[in-house]
Amino acid sequence: MSCNFSPVLQLLICVHLVYITLLIDIPAILHYNLYHTNDQHGCFYSFLIDRDMIRYESEYEYDVILKGGFHIIPYCLHLTEQVHQDTVYSNECIDDNSNNSICWTFAQLKEKQIISNNLFAWSVPIDLIEHYETFLNNPNSSNSASLTTIYNCSEGWFGSHCQYTLDSDGLIFNEFVNDIFLAKFPNQKQARSSSGTCYTHLLCDRGPSSSCLDWREICNGKRDCINGDVDEENYCTELEANECGVGEYRCQSGQCIPHAFVRDNDYDCADATDETMEIEDDGDDCSRNPAFDCEDRICTKRNNFPCGDGECISRIMPLSMSINVCTNQRNQKLIQALLAPKENPHLFPECVFVMNCITRANDLISRNSCDQLCRNISQCIDLFRVNKCPPSLFVFPIHPVAHGHVRFVYTTNTTNFAGNKLFTPYLVCFNNQLCNPFLNLTVIYNNLTCHYYSNISLSKYTFAEWSELVETVRQLFLHCSLITIKNCTNLFQCKQSSLCISTHRLLDGINDCFDESDENVIDTCSLQGPYRFQCSSDRNRCISLTMVNNGIVDCSAGEDESVQLPLFSMLCDWYQDISPLFENGREETDETDCNSHFPCNNQYTQCDGDWNCPDGLDEANCQSSLCPPFHHPCVSLKNDSIECLPIKFANDGRIHCRGGSDERHYCRNLFPELVDTRFRCSNETHRCMSVAKLCMNDKYLLVKDDKRCREDEDAICPASYFQNDWEFSGICSLAFNEQFHTTEELLCSLTDQYSKNTVGGRPERCLTLRHAGYYPPLTTHNAPKLTENTIDRIISTHIHGNKINIINRIWLCNRGIHIFIGKKKENGCLCPPAYYGDQCQYQNQRVSLILKFIKELSLDRNSVFQMVIMLIDDKQRIESYDKINYLPARDCNIKFRLNLLYSSRPKDSNKTYSVRIDAYNNDNLDYHSSWHLLIQFQNLPVNHLVARLFVGTKERAQDSRYCSIDCGSHALCMKYVNSQHYFCRCLPGWFGYFCNISHNCQCTADSRCVGVIANRSICICPLNKFGTFCQLTRSVCPPDICSSKGICVLDDSRMEEPDFTCLCNEGYFGPQCQFNSTKIEISFEGVLIPQAILAHYITAMKNTPHIHTTVFKKIPYDQNTVTLFRSGSFHILFIEFSNDYYLAVVQEKSNVSRTISTRVLPSYHCKPISDLFNHTILSYHRLRRIKYYHIPCQKLSQLA
């Protein structure tokens, strides 16, 4: 079994592994039951686990670690928006021959003795089932209630009148959501017809009528609207100037998060600046990922362009129709609208067409080449003048091309071509009020301030594409678009402008000031910020935490990068992985000082697909090779056939193979940073070209590339494609790789960027236990093992095998889920909380939450709580709410993620909103405690709140001795756990700020009424009940479903069945506690018995760095043994006490459920390096010293 699943598929697998029992079969007949139809909505719920939460451990075994966050996402259909009279079925019952349903009245169902639980299989909405249950329980129900109808839907149809279908080919909803998102890929033609998403609660003129604002462009520090600074109001200044409190970390955006969440490998800042930026996460997988963090992600850099779904690209202008394009094509649609004839009514359509061709803008909007229209410059000019273009100056396009104010002005009275490639503007015009500090005035045209194109810095460039021209203009005028803050108190003002920025942006690696003065501040240490790294080589230089371990040396001695050394397996592999560090005039990298004592052919490099030895010795004797031992595959220079070259000719200084595949280290040494420049020209001694450009049509290149191996390309490129076919983007392109022959595969494999074991161009060689054996030796009396095959069966039991043809539906609802409505199967959409509209095309105002509950030591770990999370206004009125179950034993590493919506669109700007969280004990539904979260920036469209909430004992949580509020007789005065403020907690049947407004509680007698929203009760249900008012009964845990005395707890009823979790006792794990944990019995011999130990588990991972987990364990008094239990796989165990380390366990393959008996002995004491090396080696820089660490193991067998 392979563990290389896509992120979203991993989520689905984990849901089944962790939360779904193995004993309950999925029903043969699929049913879909909508929630919340009483609210004029219909919702399904999709349970998702964030991608970093699941980890398949080990190169040999598989394991599940719950770490990160999960959420239940509602996908809702707003009935008043979606349902039309001609698409739904009549209220009258119709026989099954003419419809997808059979229906009965409540009275008829009662007469047939149909109970409410029978109706789930009919795909009846939950609220309607609950209404029927109320009817059954009330003998005095009205006549109108008895006439209410219920339809029995045919399989696949659902709704109150069976009017909807997913057409999902038998998939449950969670699987269908998974398939919808996995089917999305870049450059899909179906994405072109989607509406895209817009934030419409701000009147913003983006230019073309079809263009709109994305909420992420509000308060991003630059103007995105033509009609002024409407997207950068005063509250944006407050956000920029915001400072965080004690124990908080300030994201670059101004948001505050708990300090404990910084660098925890889980994005909590909306701009992702709480994690290392070594590999910049631009959200490029968000189009295929429905998870929470994509809906909240904003761009890290101000100059980046938000695609509207969490993805960010470096520039708004595509490089072609397929390069630098948002997966959902938002930027391409903006450009297409900008250049469309209907958006340029001041010009004749023929003129617009010719302008698009001679400016080469047409390359961005159409696959149709303009070559036949305009073959040479003179013909272009003639067409330009006769095709009804104005004889004098004119603006094209009519809307600004950059920053909402920069425009191009052309004239027919000039032959202004640049490098014989494209027609350039005569004037570049802009808003002088914005750019006065940067540019001198030259000419006024139609009230526009302009420069002659020939007089500004643009004229020194040769542009091959209109996109390059526009992008250069955008960069030139970028700082004219940045918002000027009038009050710069406590902010940094750029030296040559009035722009003011937060001091947290100083020395963060991003140029915010036009003059780059923010990145050249001399003494940033005087700022005394808690999240700055002080360079030891320059005590006055304190850089932003975002610059530490980002792959770039920012301190003169490189100490900001040396904090994290490369893995031992990455040393001396002929790939330079870190920037050079300098000490005493010496340059140190992972590839320096690699002498004969560090062999290039070792267990980490053998047969991994990369040449790590100059002659490729590590790849010359592999099973998968096309050639016999000590030979390399070679594309012959004579006839371009595959030959086998003896290894003695490799790295001999002569090129024997096409592309220099036998002299690979030449190009790698010449261009170490250009990981794709690895094809060496056969007849050009010193020339290397990009592998990606092999046989690429010149039209795909931004500028003419003279560094190509033309003779080699003439020999290997398909004659019918090269230079002629517009679609052909090279033999190494993704579009061509399905046609790979052995020759192309060999030539394209020369790149370091696409090596099969690389991440970002760097081979990922991690800890491996290959040939390590076992200590202590394996025994035969072990408990049953959880083997690889066992887990294969578990996973395959619950992974759907259906493949559905949904390609034409995946973009119709943007980030929502497409459904069909009614007899005619009209289009409908189920929208997640971040969107609304008939195509989920509008972006919601909302509050997004990341909550982590921390169990205090005094609290029982097997407690179970229902958490009610409410968005409230300043009068304690509830705008919206959600509920989650919190199990300390299960959720100690979990972050809960959810959204809360406002009750109106747009939200009421006269109200002040906040979030309140109430906890109730799940056993008896007694109130436990409350927390309160302030929303600091009320005017933001999306408020992103992140909090750690401590859960202690009930007595501590309800300490209200000093309450200053008179709550009257219908409430109790309570203090929030996380603040010094008090509030009135209303008794059932009352609500309001002082709980003085009465309400008839609609919850059942065995449930609790915990609030009121829209004059309806909010109920929390006992374990065996669910529904809006807890009227419906669900099955309790099956008897003995949890093995080994595990405790069964019912999960959220909205999760697809089965919906329970087993809390396992120590020594057991699994969905039903059915597996024995690895039992490790440790005795101490010849050493002083400590009072406690630290157990360090090392787990080898496939293609990713190993995992180090530490467990603290006390040793009982008067005992010389201790027992550990490990539910996950591991390969090495070290025991630490008194600052000494001992090797306790080594496993070549980790076998979960094994019993291991081992001893802590003096002979297995891990010696410090001071005992192993002489003074000379110990004096080396650490990066040089670690290259000797393997030598003692080779020389001293007792160390191995």
Automatic annotation (TrEMBL):
Record's keyword terms, sorted: Disulfide bond, EGF-like domain, Membrane, Transmembrane, Transmembrane helix
One GO cellular component term noted in the UniProt record for this chain: plasma membrane
A matching Pfam family: Ldl_recept_a
Alphabetized Gene3D superfamilies for the sequence: Laminin (2.10.25.10), Low-density Lipoprotein Receptor (4.10.400.10)
Domain EGF-like: 959-996, 1033-1074
Keyword Transmembrane helix in annotation: yes
Disulfide-bond pairs as recorded: 244-256, 251-269, 488-500, 607-622, 963-973, 967-984, 986-995, 1064-1073
Transmembrane segments: 7-30
PROSITE patterns: EGF_1, EGF_2, EGF_3, LDLRA_2
PANTHER family, per the entry: LOW-DENSITY LIPOPROTEIN RECEPTOR-RELATED PROTEIN 2-RELATED
Protein name: EGF-like domain-containing protein
Originating organism: Adineta ricciae (Rotifer)
